[in-house]
Amino acid sequence: ILQLAFFYRKWNVRLRDHLDKSYRHNVAECIETDTQEINEALQVLSLLFQACIYGSIENHVSMNTFDVLKQSLKSELCPWSFFSYILKLYPDQTYIEDKNGNNLLHIAAESKSSWDTIIYDCQICRSQIKSSYWYQSMDNCHYNYCEKCFLSSRDIRSNRNGSRQMKSVNKIPAAIYDLTTINASIASIPNKYGKLPLHIAVEHGKPYFQNGGTRTIFLAAPKALSTKDVISHLYPFML
Questions:
Q1: Distance between CA atoms of 141 and 132, rounded to whole angstroms?
Q2: What is the pLDDT of residue 182?
Q3: Tell me, what's the pLDDT at 217?
Q4: In sequence order, which residues have a C-beta less than 8 Å from that of residue 114 and are 6 or more positions away?
């Protein structure tokens, strides 16, 4: 249920309308007008998230905003659009740390990457959609098509007004980019064990040249390159 709710085509596309970086040059700019409908949906999704983690929404303290952001990074079920939307509403959460002293950038640096088309299949060929795809809204129904099927079907293409091309987003690199854009200073803060986000990113094999990878973290805190890891006593390039 959580997976279907997060990736329900209507909501994911609506959030992407606000946040897709192909539409925004400054990812830190404020979201101007958020509909009550989307905000109410996000409250429901947060409860489902809590139920997924704890098995129930009863007998548990409600998840705070930091916990929601943390778990949305760690869970492959959660798309980038949800994390980024909450982050931009509450940018002060970048300063919060968990019990191990990890801020959101530490957590992103150790999290596995996942694409936001993880459960989307083409409406025609039923193959899993991987990168670029077409979203179509018609008569209160919502469809996804791979690029090949969309371009080869004259009937589907005829409804261009209800169609838009989407690009799959790799959540963790996009989240790292968002975090360092909103608050670059967190890249210079070590956790409880003395590890900087750059140390953790290198240890977990985050690519350097990928936008949102170790290069992005390094550019946010260049001095980290000359800082030894407290445990291994190695510089980042030696890890």
A1: 20
A2: 94
A3: 93
A4: 76, 170, 171, 172
